[in-house]
Design goal:
The chain has 2 domains: about 1-85, Phosphorylase Kinase, domain 1, CATH 3.30.200; about 95-215, no CATH class. Helix content is about 50%, strand content about 20%. The protein has helices spanning about 45-55, 80-85, 95-120, 120-135, 145-155, 165-185, 190-195, 205-215, 220, and strands spanning about 1-5, 10-15, 20-30, 30-40, 60-65, 70-75. It starts with a strand and ends with a helix.
Length: about 220
């Protein structure tokens, strides 16, 4: 399809018909697109490869949006499909609860490491930065300071319910977590240490998440 600039499109969100979450929507020349994946500013080639794979090899109708701070890939949908909660013709959808648990374990491991190794001032800065990520990308069930504190501190494996997130939320959080971890620790050596947190998961869930991460746009950052 197209490579577009921010001024070419209109971005808004609609309420999910059955869940407490907002669905990001891009509109271009009367067509509607749903967010599939987000890439950082330095990942132009990765974003274009992912976009071309969807359009050229998988026959998806997608656009690539270029912005100064990020790239994002959007898949074409019809609004009536979203309203009816039918299967949409985007590449990814709702994430498995076990995958959400895995990402929350990694988030908490980074949070704890920063607190233990770098101190209260740094962990306070990290909490503000990750809050900005949740708010910017409109993560469901992460709107208030209390909700974010809950995500940072309550064991996701013991929680009665994990957030209802889409795969693009997980990919965005994994990329931002890597960026912030590297920023605070000064290098990427923290990733292996943090990944050890996944050992607390059942082997089946852990392997399922690792298989997802391997093919996700953020995967190469963590391997």
């Amino acid at each position: 399809m197209f490579i577009l600039k921010r001024q070419d499109v209109e971005i808004s969100s609609i309420q999910h018909p059955k869940k407490e979450q907002q669905i990001p929507i891009l509109q271009y020349q009367g067509q509607t697109f749903r967010l599939i994946s987000v890439f950082g500013a330095a990942q132009e080639e990765d974003a274009k490869l992912f976009w071309r794979d969807l359009t050229d090899h998988r026959g998806k109708a997608c656009v690539l949006l270029e912005e100064p701070e990020r790239y994002s890939v959007w898949g074409k949908v019809r609004l009536e499909q979203l309203a009816a909660e039918e299967e949409v013709h985007a590449e990814v959808g709702e994430a498995l609860p076990s995958s959400v648990q895995a990402v929350l374990l990694l988030l908490q491991a980074v949070y704890i490491d920063i607190e233990d190794l770098l101190g209260a001032k740094q962990v306070g800065a990290f909490q503000k930065e990750i809050t900005a990520v949740f708010q910017q990308w409109r993560f469901p069930q992460a709107h208030s300071p209390d909700a974010i504190h809950h995500l940072l501190t309550v064991d996701p494996l013991g929680a009665l319910q994990v957030p209802l997130w889409q795969e693009h939320h997980l990919n965005t959080l994994m990329q931002e977590l890597y960026r912030l971890g590297k920023q605070h620790f000064g290098n990427a050596n923290f990733t292996q240490r943090v990944m050890d947190a996944l050992q607390d998961m059942p082997a089946k869930d852990r392997n399922q998440f690792l298989a997802w991460l391997k093919q996700a746009p953020a995967g190469k950052l963590w391997h």
